[in-house]
């Protein structure tokens, strides 16, 4: 099947998420619209975070930010579980921690008694909006059930900023799956308001030092925005004052660009890190970007049959492991959605090719 990619001579600007395979082994970049956004640091929500810490303990320390490659480090810098604030290896420990936070939240908002965690999560974000949080798409919390006719049932919940969590227990009913997803999302939402979850000068310095140690770098690299570590520092400093979830929402775009091969393609087209940062730091993940990435996987499938199926199987395993561990899931969820979109594009193309001509 022939590629429908445009030749380079008529291509719009190179800073685009999609990479094609029509003109070389590394591919070329396609066009898409720019939709810059502005994120304002949110005001602390909880009236007394110290009282939460006293009742259920302080949140665990945030995981280290590490660079995994000197150019693609922007895409892999956080690591897969960086925004999942509670990620113990023991499921019983995770369940106990979640229940403790839910009880504490109930105590501070409704007094003692059983809390409707689904309502509590929605009220939490509605309260953030009323207190001036910059939620461009409103405060609505969105649930998504995985289609199934029998247990265990699985539910995902997307928070207003884009972060995603899922039911982390064996759920015999759809209602229980919804409650399980709401519990882990509420715990992360509460912990995200803690001062230790803010990007500060001390946090930036610690993260940069860890990156330098991992790659045997020197201080000059950290001060040079043309190096991977320097770009990493620039990203952190540009987001000073934001929370871990806010930063992870931004980094998800770069993680997807790294996974899709787009960052590598930009480098090979001599795009500087500053250009990439400036272009994508203010661009929301939208349907246009997903569609372009899906088209890249269609091209890969047409070059090597079975590519999408293999990547989809790997992604589903990652998503399952991360969900059961209580991690933030948007990166894995977006990967799966993009791959499923690619499958749909392939099926549509195959259907059209088999229709009789008139």
Uncertain residue segments: 1-16, 18-57, 60-88
Mean pLDDT over the full residue set = 75
Shape annotation:
globular
* Tally of alpha and pi helices: 14
State which percent range the strand residues make up.
Answer: under 5%
Distance between the termini: 20 Å
Q: What gyration radius follows from the Cα positions, in whole Å?
A: 22 Å
What string gives the helices and strands in order?
HHHHEEEHHHHHHHHHH
Structural class: mainly alpha
Number of strands: 3
Helix content: 40-55%
Which strands sit side by side, in order, in the main sheet? Answer: 1-2-3
Q: Major beta sheet, specifics?
A: 3 strands, antiparallel
Question: Any overview of this molecule?
Answer:
By secondary structure, the protein is mainly alpha-helical. Helix content is 52%, strand content 3%. It has 14 helices and 3 strands. The chain has helices at residues 49-56, 73-76, 91-110, 117-130, 174-191, 201-214, 219-222, 228-238, 244-260, 262-268, 273-280, 287-303, 307-324, 330-354, and strands spanning 142-145, 155-158, 164-166. It has a 3-stranded antiparallel β-sheet with strand order 1-2-3. Strand 2 and strand 3 form a beta hairpin. The protein starts with 48 loop residues before the first helix and ends with a helix. 38% of the residues are buried.
Task: Write a short abstract of this structure.
This protein is mostly helical and 358 residues long.
Secondary-structure map:
Blueprint: H1 49-56, H2 73-76, H3 91-110, H4 117-130, E1 142-145, E2 155-158, E3 164-166, H5 174-191, H6 201-214, H7 219-222, H8 228-238, H9 244-260, H10 262-268, H11 273-280, H12 287-303, H13 307-324, H14 330-354
Antiparallel strand pairs: 1-2, 2-3
Helix pairs in contact: 3-5, 4-5, 6-8, 9-14, 12-14, 13-14
């Amino acid at each position: 099947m022939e590629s429908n990619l445009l030749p380079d001579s008529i291509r719009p600007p190179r800073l685009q998420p999609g990479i094609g395979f029509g003109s070389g082994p590394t591919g070329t970049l396609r066009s898409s619209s720019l939709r810059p956004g502005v994120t304002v640091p949110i005001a602390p929500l909880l009236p007394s975070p110290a009282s939460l810490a006293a009742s259920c303990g302080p949140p665990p320390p945030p995981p280290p930010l590490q660079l995994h490659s000197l150019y693609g480090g922007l895409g892999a810098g956080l690591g897969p579980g960086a925004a999942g604030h509670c990620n113990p290896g023991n499921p019983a420990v995770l369940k106990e921690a979640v229940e403790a936070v839910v009880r504490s939240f109930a105590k501070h908002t409704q007094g003692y008694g059983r809390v409707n965690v689904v309502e509590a999560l929605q009220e939490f974000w509605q309260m953030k909006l009323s207190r001036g949080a910059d939620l461009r798409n409103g405060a609505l919390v969105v649930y998504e059930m995985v289609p199934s006719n029998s247990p265990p049932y699985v539910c995902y919940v997307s928070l207003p900023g884009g972060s995603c969590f899922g039911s982390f227990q064996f759920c015999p009913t759809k209602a229980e799956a919804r409650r399980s997803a709401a519990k882990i999302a509420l715990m992360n939402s509460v912990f995200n308001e803690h001062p230790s979850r803010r990007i500060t000068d001390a946090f930036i310095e610690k993260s940069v030092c860890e990156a330098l140690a991992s790659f045997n770098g020197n201080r000059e690299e950290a001060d040079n925005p043309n190096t991977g570590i320097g770009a990493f520092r620039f990203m952190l400093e540009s987001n000073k004052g934001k929370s871990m979830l806010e930063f992870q929402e931004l980094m998800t775009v770069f993680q997807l660009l790294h996974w899709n091969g787009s960052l590598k393609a930009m480098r090979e087209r001599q795009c500087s890190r500053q250009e990439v940062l400036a272009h994508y730091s203010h661009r929301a993940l939208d349907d246009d970007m997903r569609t372009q990435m899906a088209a890249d996987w269609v091209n890969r499938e047409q070059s090597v049959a079975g590519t999408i199926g293999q990547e989809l199987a790997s992604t589903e395993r990652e998503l399952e492991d991360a969900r059961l561990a209580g991690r933030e899931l948007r990166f894995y969820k977006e990967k799966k959605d993009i791959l499923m979109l690619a499958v749909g594009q392939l099926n549509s193309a195959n259907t059209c090719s088999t229709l009789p001509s008139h």
